[in-house]
Write a structure and sequence with these properties.
Its cofactor is [4Fe-4S] cluster. This is Radical SAM protein. By secondary structure, the chain is of the alpha/beta class. It folds into 3 domains: 112 residues, Response regulator (Rossmann fold); 231 residues, pyruvate-formate lyase- activating enzyme (Alpha-Beta Horseshoe), CATH 3.80.30.20; 58 residues, OB fold (Dihydrolipoamide Acetyltransferase, E2P) (Beta Barrel). Helices cover 34% and strands 24% of the residues. It has a 6-stranded parallel β-sheet with strand order 2-1-3-4-5-6, sandwiched between helices. The chain has a 5-stranded mixed barrel with strand order 14-15-16-18-17. Strands 8-7-9-10 form a 4-stranded mixed β-sheet. The longest helix has 24 residues. It is globular, with a radius of gyration of 22 Å. The N and C termini lie far apart (49 Å).
């Protein structure tokens, strides 16, 4: 009987893709499951995150819980937290600790013990591969395709650049195209391009993200697929990039922007490469070709020195821009970052209150956006079914409850629908099959 290995993934879409790729390496010799947390597996691989202290807390909690449920199971920790503080994870009960480089050869470390994470792997390795999966994570409908790794920014609050590497590694255009072709042949309809910082795609091999997207658009324009981009920074949203995303039907009419704040004062303190005006220009560029183009973003409240004026600027911007969704965070000091040592740190209870206030404004912004698209005809890619209702997303990344009766609808298929109303709690919309 094969031993059972459970992959538990925290954090970003890049981690999900890498967990799937690691699972595929082990699948010939082990029974692979995902997110099994009840102590029933022989080996647990925790692909960790270190973007916030809350993420790290959940990882520590999971290790303690697994050790309590089954002291005989082996725990392998890998990912960003494993580079940030490998000793702590080892002390908590992780039998093997691997970093973001070592995870690429997880099959070599399966029977080892101890810490193997290299904090400076990008300096010690001239060239290393990007982990590209052959299937979606946990048999889901969308497949994540990593095309870039590393970040050379110097944002004062972030330590991920050190954990993912201060060197850019890109998947060559030809390999990206081949991977997409392979996914299409297998019948997958949605492919999500992901990376540490997609704006730096091609810096290492004289290619650019715009060139890649244009080539993808031309090559697959007649295919019934959807290409989604996980996250971009405002300063790279040029008019040309916007035109490309709007020109080809395969590209989702949605972009997730890594904004973090709207106050110029806070953005400068964060050492971001853009200001509020540039954010607005980026969104205007995207919506110039399609007024319904949807925007989701990351925003942080409680950054050191943030005052009522800064909050007002952020809240006004959220409301004005009619954002589809805000991924909101309380500022979390990260050890070793410049921001962690800044004066005027905001107390925890105040950050919590500001987050609650921002979430209310974000909900109103979402409602205003969704109200503006009622009556629109869109194409939904179905995912899950509950009786006579299917759940899925359209090309604007809006979640749908699709009502159907006579027509036969299967998971993983596109259907033309018309949006009829908002769903409960304004989390999405209700639509009918045309």
């Amino acid at each position: 009987m094969k031993r059972k290995v459970s992959f538990i993934t925290f954090g970003c879409k890049m981690n999900q893709a890498e967990s799937q790729a690691m699972a595929e390496k082990l699948s010939p010799h082990f029974d692979i499951v995902f997110e099994e947390k009840m102590g029933e597996s022989d080996i647990y691989v925790l692909n960790t995150c270190a973007v916030t202290s809350e993420a790290e807390r959940k990882i520590r909690q999971t290790i303690r819980r697994l050790k309590k449920l089954n002291g005989n199971s082996k725990i392998i920790a890998t990912g960003c937290y494993s580079i940030s503080d490998p000793e702590e994870l080892n002390k908590l009960g992780a039998d093997v600790v691997l970093g973001n480089f070592e995870k690429k050869q997880i099959d070599r470390f399966l029977y080892e013990e101890g810490i193997y994470s290299d904090k400076h792997f990008w300096l010690h390795n001239e060239k290393y591969d990007i982990l590209v999966p052959n299937e979606p994570y946990d048999n889901r409908t969308r497949v994540f395709l990593p095309i870039e790794e590393g970040c050379i920014n110097s944002c004062t609050f972030c330590k991920i650049r050190f954990l993912r590497g201060l060197k850019i590694v890109s998947l060559p255009k030809e390999e990206v195209i081949k991977s997409i072709e392979k996914f299409i042949e297998k019948g997958y309809k949605e492919i999500v391009l992901t990376g540490t910082n997609l704006g730096y795609y091609g810096v290492d091999n004289s290619e650019t993200l715009e060139e890649l997207l244009n080539q993808i658009g031309k090559r697959f324009a007649d295919k019934e697929i959807r290409i989604r981009i996980t996250s971009l920074y405002p300063e790279i949203i040029t008019d040309n990039l916007s035109a490309i995303l709007n020109a080809y039907p395969i590209f989702e009419r949605h972009v997730h922007l890594s904004i973090q704040h709207f106050s110029d004062k806070i953005l400068e303190t964060m050492n971001r490469k853009y200001n509020r005006k540039m954010i607005y220009t980026a969104i205007e560029n995207l919506r110039k070709y399609d007024s319904k183009f949807s925007i989701t973003c990351d925003l942080i409240v409680g950054f050191p020195g943030e005052d009522e004026k800064d909050l007002g600027i952020m809240f006004d911007s959220i409301e004005e821009l009619k954002l589809l969704k805000v991924h909101s965070f309380r500022y979390s000091p990260r050890e070793g970052t410049v921001a962690a040592k800044m004066k005027n740190q905001i107390p925890g209870n105040e950050k919590k209150a500001r987050l609650s206030q921002m979430n209310k404004i974000a909900d109103l912004s979402r409602e205003n956006y969704l109200n503006g698209i009622i009556g629109s005809k869109v194409k939904v890619l179905t995912e899950n079914r509950l009786k006579d209702v299917f759940f899925g997303y359209d090309e604007y990344y809006i979640p749908h409850n699709v009502q159907f009766h006579e027509k036969k609808i299967e998971k993983g298929q596109f259907f033309n629908t018309m949006i009829s109303s908002l769903s409960k709690e304004n989390k999405g919309v209700v639509s009918n099959v045309l």
